[in-house]
Design brief:
Layout: E1 5-11, E2 16-22, E3 25-37, E4 42-49, H1 52-59, E5 65-79, E6 86-94, E7 100-106, H2 108-115
Parallel strand pairs: 4-6
Antiparallel strand pairs: 1-3, 1-5, 2-3, 3-4, 5-6, 5-7
Length: 116
Amino acid sequence: MTNRVTITGKLLDAPKVRSFEQRGGTIEIVSLWIEVRDEHRADRFTVEINCPKAAAAAKAMRADVIAEVTGVLRHDRWKDKASGKWTGKVYVAIDPGQGTLRSKGIAPDTQQQAAA
């Protein structure tokens, strides 16, 4: 079974970078918050980037950029320390050699605001 998703949407915030120590090295994960909107609704997606090439591209982006993301859907679960209940989230992951991230320019409504 193939697990592949492509979304195109507007970055809502600057990329977030988190670093973790692992076996004598450091792992860096870049996260994006993307909104996909049509005339009826707006959906928001978290993108977690584990690929160094895609992470470098993501770090160069800023809020209001239109981005095209190709990756895989993942599900993360954890137990809430306060309530003891299990919770989770679904997100798009870009793994090394398995996905892409491309900038499609600044969102049209942002360009109009900047010109005013």
